[in-house]
Amino acid sequence: MPTDSPAPADTPRTPPAPAERVPAPAPERAAHRDPGPGPTLRDSDAPAPDAPRGYRAVFAVVEFRAVFAAHLLSLLGVVVSELALTVLVYDLTGSPLLSALTFALGLLPYIVGGTLFAGVADRYPARRVLVVCDLLCAACVAVMLVPATPVAGLLALRCLVAAVAPVFTGTRMAALTDILGEGDLYVLGRSLLRIVSQSAMLIGFGAGGVLLTVLSPRGAITVTVVTFLCSAALLRFGTRDRPARATTGDGGGTLLKESLSGARLVLGDRRIRALMLLFWLPAMFVVAPEALAAPYADAIGAPPAALGLLLCAMAVGHIGAELFVGSALSPRNRSRIVLPVAAVGLLPLLVYVVRPGLPLALAALALAGAGAAYVIGLDQWFVDAVPQELRGRAMTLLTAGLMTVQGLGMALAGLAAEFFPVHQVVAGSGIIGTVCTLLLVAEVLRTAPGRMSDTEGRDGADRHVTSR
Prior knowledge:
Blueprint: H1 27-30, H2 54-59, H3 62-93, H4 96-104, H5 110-116, H6 120-123, H7 126-144, H8 151-180, H9 184-214, H10 217-238, H11 255-268, H12 270-286, H13 288-291, H14 293-299, H15 305-328, H16 331-344, H17 358-370, H18 374-385, H19 391-416, H20 422-446, H21 454-467
């Protein structure tokens, strides 16, 4: 739950006037931009001959080790609590609907927190925001442990934790640029945190299942309180205190106004909007086979264990591809594969047209998961495109949108499966998603630095805002 180039200047930068839409990059950042679709290897990214390379170089940064450990602890706690809370709600109500709603409430509030509270990420020092988010979540989970807490209270607390999550994650993503810089170390640091997130899904549910055999659901939820508190301690004492990225100038701006204004500036910039959609769109379609894993396993007559394999295959492919791209490819080559891999990443789902058996379906899912490797290079493009004073809000909005579109994708896949066979829905997701991604790839190419002037980008932003 509640990641991090040089520290920002001692004096926080003031947000630009609204008429500017997205502020022009500082001269030193503009000099690093590449005229192609995305940034290539910069001279400053090249490590010294005797310096650690790859993922080892990231772990050599002491502050990142604290962030990594905090991320691992809180993620495992969240996964365990989600499973335990679902079981607890079912035990209290006997309702499958309310039990399933407990999971859904982990996704739906993301868009609320990410839109209305995004300003927190830039308005206050990052370390303070991260620690407060962890403590707030620990308090919410602690209240869940009280036997007198009704089911409605449990669900409300679940919503609150989920609303805090995008603020925490966006702040951490922006803070990684302070800790690791804006180049290759940042990209590899983000990659490691994604790998942990994917692994937590595999390990956390297994660990939660084991805990529930020896502890009550509330006993298992207690683990989450401890992990949040440990995460807060690691971030408080393991990272430096840095000033906020932006101030309210005359002090008259409200948090809500700053959050909505930041969203407007981020989404109003044509380049940033295209890159953000490239994160979101493939993710929206790739979740279809996971959402429909249970009915598909039943349709092909697979044994009960097959459901777990179908749910794990995509994560395994993602982890393997991320490790390979992060360790074997140079920053320049990671940048080169972004658009080709994004364009073909959903094509493995077309195998579902022939209603494949379990081995072929698992292979297709692993390949689809591997298609997410394009995100490593896209991370660099995104951090280069977003001005520093908007970075926290942009990262928060990115996280909130990503979780929301995945939830929407699952819901749409389930709705489509009410009218069409499951294998056709999954294959259709691959086809429609590929077409949409190809159109988006063309837009990313059109907005590449050097192919579109800053004035064109701002004019496009003005037209976009007006059209809404």
